[in-house]
What we know:
Elements: E1 14-18, E2 25-29, E3 37-45, E4 59-74, H1 87-94, H2 101-112, E5 125-129, E6 135-150, E7 156-167, H3 170-173, H4 178-195
Antiparallel strand pairs: 1-2, 1-5, 3-4, 4-7, 5-6, 6-7
Amino acid sequence: MSTFPQSLNPVRGGFVLIDLATGKPKTIPFQYNPDTLTRTLQPQGIGNEPGDRLEALRLKGPPHETYKFDAEFDAAAEPERFPDGLFPLLCALERSISPTYDQLWSENDDAGKGLLEIAPAEAPLTVLVLGPRRVVPVRITEFSVTEEAFDASLNPIRAKVSVGVRVLTVDDLGYLHKGGGLYLTHLQQKERFAAAVDHPVTDVGVPRI
């Protein structure tokens, strides 16, 4: 877990769950920022076969990007923040990957009416926030919890949450969707920072390319 001197006042990462019907956000900050984060990007190229001269450099869309990290929580370190242990926080995190009670009953009622097409329940838009430079819409693809200590009522008071997410792009959400807009803003920001890296080719030991 990452801890810093109080004077540095570090930014906490976390998840923001946005109810698309109301626009209301539910913020779930990390108690401790992850020590490590693994990012994997898989390019969406067209030319997959060697010798395909027409398509070798073409891209058909944004890369598939995934993040993996662990988030640790300790209710004993901040009892005023976690009066009921970590159970409420873990329930809030799980909300992003589970239909609600009302959604399940609604689907059951529709099935009972004989409707041929029942739209699957829609989860809140999950946004992963890792500082002001990384605010990305995601889908949680892996979620495991290791509960390491409990209070007298068996509420977990120390836990490690291992999370894997896939970044959602405009290919997934569309250009007019709230999440699509967040992705495009994130992409523009990355392009601005990438443009600042501009070294001469001599820095890599060759006079020209």
